[in-house]
Amino acid sequence: MDKAGYPINLFEFEDAARRVLDKGDFDSVVGGATDELTIARTRQVFDSILLRPRRLVDVSHRDLSTTVLSSRVSFPVMLAPSGGHQLVHPDGEVATVRAAGSAGLLTVLSVGSTRPMEEVAAAAKGPLWFQQHILKDKAIQHDLAERAKEAGFCGLCLTVDSLGFGKRERDLRNSWRPIEGQGSSVINYSPYFGGPGLKAPSQLPELIDTSATWSDAADFVAQTTLPVVIKGILTAEDARLCVESGASGIVVSAHGGRNLDTTVTSIEVLGEVVDIVAGAAEVYMDGGVRRGTDVVKALALGARAVLIGRPIFWGLAVGGAGGLRATLEILRDEIDLTMALTGKSTIGSIDKSLLMVGSVPGVPISRV
Amino acid sequence: MDKAGYPINLFEFEDAARRVLDKGDFDSVVGGATDELTIARTRQVFDSILLRPRRLVDVSHRDLSTTVLSSRVSFPVMLAPSGGHQLVHPDGEVATVRAAGSAGLLTVLSVGSTRPMEEVAAAAKGPLWFQQHILKDKAIQHDLAERAKEAGFCGLCLTVDSLGFGKRERDLRNSWRPIEGQGSSVINYSPYFGGPGLKAPSQLPELIDTSATWSDAADFVAQTTLPVVIKGILTAEDARLCVESGASGIVVSAHGGRNLDTTVTSIEVLGEVVDIVAGAAEVYMDGGVRRGTDVVKALALGARAVLIGRPIFWGLAVGGAGGLRATLEILRDEIDLTMALTGKSTIGSIDKSLLMVGSVPGVPISRV
Amino acid sequence: MDKAGYPINLFEFEDAARRVLDKGDFDSVVGGATDELTIARTRQVFDSILLRPRRLVDVSHRDLSTTVLSSRVSFPVMLAPSGGHQLVHPDGEVATVRAAGSAGLLTVLSVGSTRPMEEVAAAAKGPLWFQQHILKDKAIQHDLAERAKEAGFCGLCLTVDSLGFGKRERDLRNSWRPIEGQGSSVINYSPYFGGPGLKAPSQLPELIDTSATWSDAADFVAQTTLPVVIKGILTAEDARLCVESGASGIVVSAHGGRNLDTTVTSIEVLGEVVDIVAGAAEVYMDGGVRRGTDVVKALALGARAVLIGRPIFWGLAVGGAGGLRATLEILRDEIDLTMALTGKSTIGSIDKSLLMVGSVPGVPISRV
Amino acid sequence: MDKAGYPINLFEFEDAARRVLDKGDFDSVVGGATDELTIARTRQVFDSILLRPRRLVDVSHRDLSTTVLSSRVSFPVMLAPSGGHQLVHPDGEVATVRAAGSAGLLTVLSVGSTRPMEEVAAAAKGPLWFQQHILKDKAIQHDLAERAKEAGFCGLCLTVDSLGFGKRERDLRNSWRPIEGQGSSVINYSPYFGGPGLKAPSQLPELIDTSATWSDAADFVAQTTLPVVIKGILTAEDARLCVESGASGIVVSAHGGRNLDTTVTSIEVLGEVVDIVAGAAEVYMDGGVRRGTDVVKALALGARAVLIGRPIFWGLAVGGAGGLRATLEILRDEIDLTMALTGKSTIGSIDKSLLMVGSVPGVPISRV
Questions:
Q1: Measuring CA to CA, which residue among C28, C185, C5, C18 is closest to residue C112?
Q2: Which of A94, A101, C161, C342 is the most buried (most CB within 10 A)?
């Protein structure tokens, strides 16, 4: 616990959240697909990457700010799109964007938000992107994008790795399901109920277009004036297709190990994506970021910023907007300390020379 | 537990079987040779192989069916030859072939079946192969093959890695031995008792020809019109000899770690076998397959299909034909989900680009 | 326990210290930054380095003595600069230098000593170096160096990896802070209190110059006639800058894993530093040295000597100067035995042929 | 337990010995130097080496016999020189050689035998070698060798890796010391007490010549007509010197991890020794052999035979000569089964093709 009574690091925030949440709800947040091996591996990979600190660099003034697309953020962390924040706190996504904005950070709001996007946007203090899927009903898909633009979102995030839930065995064992209207995620779709494409909420799981291909992604980009970030990429091949589809950014992500187990982890394929993209788009990553050193390592491998997912829920569960703000401040302080102790005074000066050759699993020695 | 009260994955089926079986019987099914290191390693190797999921591929219609030799199966899993199914359920192999057939799968019936091959064949709904050894008494060996053909089996499986039991220390500690007429495996040999080659059941352990060489395998192939699959191969050298002997298929197998400990595991040598065979025979594998991701990984390394052994016993022990059917459906659903989430809509499209370079132990980086 | 009632190795000294110290104090000594992964890794690296013992070499007379800069020491171990020895024993650094001197060893006295440097120097029997930081107030920095020279210190040690404390979570959880005047480290700064650069002890944490660069290090060297050793180097790049700054020695160090977690460990980058320095300065290392075999391994990788930190506190806590002396004798005896059993009768004959190719993590096979 | 009430493998023999022996005595047998890491690593290395079994080789007649120098043994295992067998059984080394001889094996009798070498030789049924050190008193050294030849020993074993005990911390903690006249090892030296070179038993520890060099080894070989095997080699450099000294055989050995910790293990350097010796001497190994698969792996790496040490004590402790005989039979049966299941009918046919490329730690892929 720190002075304000909050935990002192993100792992302890997780422990604190475990204590305040129902087991079923907690498990639904932290659980992953089948054996949860990807979740474990993600931390192992981060922990095995070794920093090479430099000495006697002037670090008396450190600037952690950077930009993601056109938005300036106070440090290179974004809040990942994740549905159902009311599951862990009644203020839901309104608390989330308030905490993020007060910390100078950008939030990617999930289409599965438990508060309407317009309400969230009105409450927000910082920049927002809106996250969507490719839908069978292109009219709904397009209308969601237009509403987001209207509401003031400055970017769209197209998730391409979720065609339905993974096999989450904790939820199966707990017989867990979101409570209607609380942890549920129908609110942003509600204007379309009864319409031609979506007769009832029960049809929602069918709405995602599992036949979508890269031409649908290109169409999605072409039909909006907002920049589009494609999320869920784990291969160089798909990263190239993102660029060809007109994406402005790419989120390297294994969906937190929640959809498919034993995939490559995002941190270990980040380098291959950065290489092939070669600056044609910004590259971000999520998956397992828990320490300031993790953020700096991802940046050293070429990420422009990282996203955090589960820690949002832990912060909200422990203390609503205040708890989440404390979580974000821990990350900021740890990034700041890591920069001071590795000889980096700006985000832009963090490069691969900061990492030990050969300490990134899956990355050939020649790369780092 | 799922809706029908069955476990939700194969590991939990194993736990459930442990609870319903006598310890000696359970150990006889799951145990392996000496220190059981190969059993542990098999899972470690599967878990360490990393998938590279592709995005925005049309996976709205997924076809899991394939063929093994001339038989169409609904997904690329076969039931491995394994004796003594009555040990865990009174319906024995009759339940096995009913469950397999109703799932659209092929069963390889062990010569050590506890029900006569003719009875099993009559009860079967799906394709069957019959498994044999090279015997000292070639007349018995040949007659078994002829009976199998008569009974409607469409292929023969010649096991070449079992010249007697391994040192199974669980059985030694439990003083375990199969009960006569129940877990015993004499039934398919009973017509020959009292004949010139096999005076009494007590001579059965002596019947396997430990002096057999590859010319015996070639003779076995030559003396039947059924296609022959040779099972128990762990080296490229022997795989080549299988092809030269006329085999139509090869099962890469370490016999479930039950005969010799600390051998190479089947999944890590699968690639070297596929390479040398180069399409001249179909290549299958068994050993440690417990998840849909395991099946997809084996296919990515070049297997046409995989076989499961111990899970048959767990399914039968938990619920007879119904329990085994539930086991098979879990595997099918997991394979289907893995394909959806990796961007594969057909079995034929699964290839080595789906695996991370260097993540297969024992396989040089250049192969995968 | 040995005959005198002391523990028989350094790990048992740690256990004994745990029993006699308050938890907060003990944790403050042994704890490290955040997840303490670097601390664990340091031991793993030492343990994984494999010795290649030679036989039938005349080892009847073994000479463990060597020199560090101009000082002869009885074996290649130095006492690392570490503040606050009175935290664990009332005699503090006076006990430390007496034990070190009687063992024929050199002590690097921390500026954070809890006894005045002049008193410590007067009590010492062996050679001493004085450790400092680059300060904002160059007058104080220079005066400290002059006082050290006056007091008889024969070298200066410039610590460059400490710009403030790391995030030591044990201390945060224990709400631990040094008791004023006991574990505190203000004594050597007390003459400057009330002066122009340091009005009060509360300003001390602000005194370190976080804007310092390598030209400040060069100035530090230039302004003293004593040889200067720079401590806290973990990269070849910085080692080269040490040499260019005029340093006579370099301490490869990760600060005991106390400042930043998941850095490279000193033992695994020692070789790269030795290579680039190429004899232009002496190279030492600290971090995790607990066994005589560790010392010999560091020497084989090119270190002239090693430093120990935490074991000083354990020895003092267990038995003051006597306990520390016992600690040092254990190390000496273990080094002696290692030399006898690897065929080395002199320190100078220990070279990289003593290590198995490929057994040093992070060091390419071609180096060892 | 097997039918005769004996344990079913060597690990269980160790457990059984633990139960019947005093803790101090048991620890003195199984313990090693300092942290006992080499002991653990030895097993890890054996377990990680993977066998490549071949199929359809005629293994109906298996011949496990081989020769070590001129002696035929029934399988490629020797009993390692080890002092003090009366510590665990009153029959001491007399029981040892009876068990070994009845199993068709060769025993290397330690100079530290607790029964006179002449008595042991008279009781023996199988071939014997006598183990010595290079002594300061060459007359005693020479007389021991002559006595051994007179008594019928057919080879000498010169141990070169023991210049005094290692730091065995179990013994220090247990304050363990051998009981005079029981576990003590003075009996073979007793004729020399009171003579010019050895006034009293208390001088025995001083008798080993720590100044010995390879010319002393060459003298040792030159002064006997018996073949000499040099024991305790862990490097190619020393193996070459063995050959140049005239040795007929070499025992690659880390002295069971009892003298120096974190050395290379014998199994992982066996290949480099075999390569450099290139047939000029026979190469044996000891260290960690517990399974028949271990023996076969050592042979595949080029060893002519292996030696076992601690298992002798376990067998004797559990059942004297009968217990040791049971231990040896387990090894023989496991070797036999390993050969049957890997397609080897003779010892001579076991070669490196039996091992997976890259599965031997420390051995470059190109070697195996």
A1: C185
A2: C161
Contact assignment for D161 to C55 by CB distance below 8 Å? yes
Q: Rounded to two decimals, what is the model's pTM?
A: 0.96
Question: What are residue D154's phi and psi, to 5 degrees?
Answer: -105, 10
Q: Give chains near D: 3+ CB pairs under 8 A.
A: B, C
Residue of C nearest to D158 (CA): C56
Is D216 in contact with C56 (Cβ distance < 8 A)? yes
The answer to whether D326 touches D26, Cβ cutoff 8 Å, is no
CB C203, CB C186: distance < 8 Å: no
Contact C/B (≥3 CB pairs under 8 Å): no
- B54/A235 CB distance under 8 A: yes
List of chain D residues whose C-beta atoms are within 8 Å of the C-beta of residue C57? 213
pLDDT tens-digit map of A247-281: 999 999 999 999 999 999 999 999 999 999 999 99
The C-alpha atoms of residue B10 and residue A267 are separated, in whole angstroms, by 30
Give chain D positions within 8 Å (CB) of C56: 134, 160, 212-214, 216-217, 238, 241
Segment C37-51 shows an average pLDDT of: 97
Tokens of A352: 């691969």
| Chain segment B199-242, per-residue pLDDT in tens | 888 788 789 999 999 999 999 999 999 999 999 999 999 999 99
Residues of D in contact with C358 (CB under 8 A): 362
Q: Is C334 on the interface with D (CB under 8 A)?
A: yes
Please state, in angstroms and rounded to a whole number, the distance separating the CA atoms of residues C231 and A56.
Answer: 11
Contact A185, A83 (CB under 8 A): yes
Task: List the structure tokens of A38.
Answer: 């990807």
Q: What is the DSSP letter of B357?
A: T
Locate D20 and state its tokens.
């019947």
Q: What residues of B are annotated to the active site?
A: 255
Q: Which residues pair with B248 in a beta bridge?
A: none
DSSP SS3 for D183: coil
CA gap B272, B249 in Å, rounded: 15
For testing the chain D interface, which of B38, B134, B157, B167 should be mutated: the one with the most D CBs within 10 Å?
A: B167
Residue C169 has pLDDT above 50, yes or no: yes
Using a CB–CB cutoff of 8 Å, tell me whether D105 touches chain C. Answer: no
Counting as low any pLDDT under 50, the low residues of chain A are 181-183, 364-368
Interface C-D, measured as beta-carbon pairs within 8 A, has a size of 87
d(CA B269, CA B285) in angstroms, rounded, equals 10
- How far from B299 is each of B242, B356, C243, CA to CA, in Å? 20, 14, 57
Residue corresponding to tokens 């080595």: B352
Our measurement of the distance from residue A363's CA atom to the centroid of its chain's CA atoms, rounded to an integer in Å, reads: 23
Task: Tell me, yes or no, if B186 comes closer than 8 A to chain A by beta carbon.
Answer: no
Please identify among residues 280-319 of chain B the ones whose CB lies closer than 8 Å to any CB of chain A: 291, 293
HEC-encoded secondary structure of chain D: CCCCCCCCCHHHHHHHHHHHCCHHHHHHHHCCCCCCHHHHHHHHHHHHCCECCCCCCCCCCCECCEEECCEEECCCEEECCCCCHHHCCCCHHHHHHHHHHHCCCCEEECCCCCCCHHHHHHHCCCCEEEEECCECCHHHHHHHHHHHHHHCCCEEEEECCCCCCCCCHHHHHHCCCCCCCCCCCCHHHHHHCCCCCCCCHHHHHHCECCCCCHHHHHHHHHCCCCCEEEEEECCHHHHHHHHHCCCCEEEECCHHHCCCCCECCHHHHHHHHHHHHCCCCEEEEECCCCCHHHHHHHHHCCCCEEEECHHHHHHHHHHHHHHHHHHHHHHHHHHHHHHHHHCCCEHHHCCHHHECCCCCCCCCCCCC
As a whole number, the mean pLDDT across chain B is: 94
Which among B81, B38, B43 has a CA at the least distance from the CA of B257?
Answer: B38
Catalytic site includes residue A255: yes
